[in-house]
């Protein structure tokens, strides 16, 4: 395995997770804002590593495996820390929807790949929108403090509600695509 820049970016995304977590709980005035900056940088590398790997023809099996794992770990850890910080009923449902969907779709993709049907559950535009809303919302909620009087946390919470709706929609789209195969009709 060759350590390419795209693979290094993915590895850095995994490495930043404990730093974001530690900063989130650190009792320092700007710790959450620094956690948000690191989280945002990790989110940008989610797009950048794949783009560079394709552009420079540096795609690898390990990178293809690690990239979605890094994304899901980052999102799950951040959602759990936000929920621990604000253990409300609605937020708990949202976190359960998002993490539950990620587990379900990951298992579905693995199963479909084993059947040679992975393209039946390829990433759709709904999934891309879901990811955009989700990543933005989580970053705003980590930041927490108002900016120029704008309630950043509340806006992020609203965006996370939209992300949860898109999460359910995208899960149903993937399950509907796989349903004939699950029933043995394809």
From TrEMBL:
Its EC number is 2.7.8.5. One of its GO terms (molecular function) is CDP-diacylglycerol-glycerol-3-phosphate 3-phosphatidyltransferase activity. It is found in: Membrane. It catalyses: a CDP-1,2-diacyl-sn-glycerol + sn-glycerol 3-phosphate = a 1,2-diacyl-sn-glycero-3-phospho-(1'-sn-glycero-3'-phosphate) + CMP + H(+). It is an enzyme of class 2 (transferase). The keyword Transmembrane helix applies. The chain crosses the membrane at residues 89-108, 129-149, 155-175. It is a multi-pass membrane protein. Keywords: Lipid biosynthesis, Lipid metabolism, Membrane, Phospholipid biosynthesis, Phospholipid metabolism, Transferase, Transmembrane, Transmembrane helix. The keyword Protein biosynthesis does not apply. Pathway: Phospholipid metabolism; phosphatidylglycerol biosynthesis; phosphatidylglycerol from CDP-diacylglycerol: step 1/2. Its main location: membrane. It holds the Pfam family CDP-OH_P_transf. It comes from the Bacteria. InterPro entries: CDP-alcohol_PTase-I (IPR050324), CDP-OH_P_trans (IPR000462), CDP-OH_PTrfase_TM_dom (IPR043130), CDP_ALCOHOL_P_TRANSF_CS (IPR048254), Phosphatidylglycerol_P_synth (IPR004570). Belongs to the CDP-alcohol phosphatidyltransferase class-I family. This is CDP-diacylglycerol--glycerol-3-phosphate 3-phosphatidyltransferase. The lineage of its organism: Bacteria, Pseudomonadati, Pseudomonadota, Gammaproteobacteria, Nevskiales.
């Amino acid at each position: 395995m060759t350590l390419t820049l795209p693979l290094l970016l993915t590895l850095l995304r995994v490495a930043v997770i404990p730093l974001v977590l530690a900063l989130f709980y650190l009792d320092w005035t700007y710790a959450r804002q620094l956690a948000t900056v690191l989280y945002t940088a990790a989110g940008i590398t989610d797009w950048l590593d794949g783009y560079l790997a394709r552009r420079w023809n540096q795609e690898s099996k390990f990178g293809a495996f690690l990239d979605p794992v890094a994304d899901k770990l980052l999102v799950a850890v951040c959602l759990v820390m936000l929920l621990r910080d604000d253990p409300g009923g609605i937020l708990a449902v949202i976190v359960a929807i998002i993490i539950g969907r990620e587990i379900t779709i990951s298992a579905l993709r693995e199963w479909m790949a084993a059947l040679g049907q992975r393209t039946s559950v390829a990433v759709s535009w709904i999934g891309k929108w879901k990811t955009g809303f989700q990543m933005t919302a989580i970053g705003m909620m980590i930041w927490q403090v108002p900016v120029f009087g704008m309630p950043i946390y509340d806006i992020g919470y609203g965006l996370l509600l939209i992300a949860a709706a898109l999460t359910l929609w995208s899960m149903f789209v993937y399950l509907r695509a796989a349903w004939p195969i699950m029933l043995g009709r394809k």
